[in-house]
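User: Hey, quick favor. My workstation is busy. Could you predict this chain's structure for me?
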Amino acid sequence: MERILARQVPGNHDLPRDAFADILLWHYHHPRPQNGERVRVVDRRSGDLVAEGVWEDRADQPDGTNNAVVHTEDGQETCVPAGVLLEVVEPLPRHRPAVLTEGELFVVAELLAELGAVYGGERLGELATTLSTKIAQEVGFEEQPA
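Assistant: No problem, here it is.
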């Protein structure tokens, strides 16, 4: 998955934090598909269905802009263009190796809690607080008194 920063959204260098939070929330709730998963591809602007079928990552696209195709039930292959919304409709089991140590997770949770406090009352702050709480609960960190 590529990292998305607010300043990198094409054509919008001053993206409002709420819009950026919406993009991050989409990625939080809709992880990038893995090969073999059934997906629905929707145009971000119009909401029109682009394709529905089985996802396949590809690195050999001739134009260099598409890195995946969807195999539809009628045997067609649809290149997945940039800027679409991807929804996994039939997920496969995912193996997620540990990428952070417990100490690193503690630091990440604390940084997210701080971000949530700085942007309290905004969607970005709500997302940061939600993720901080989730990490703390999953790892078993105890709440520190204020």
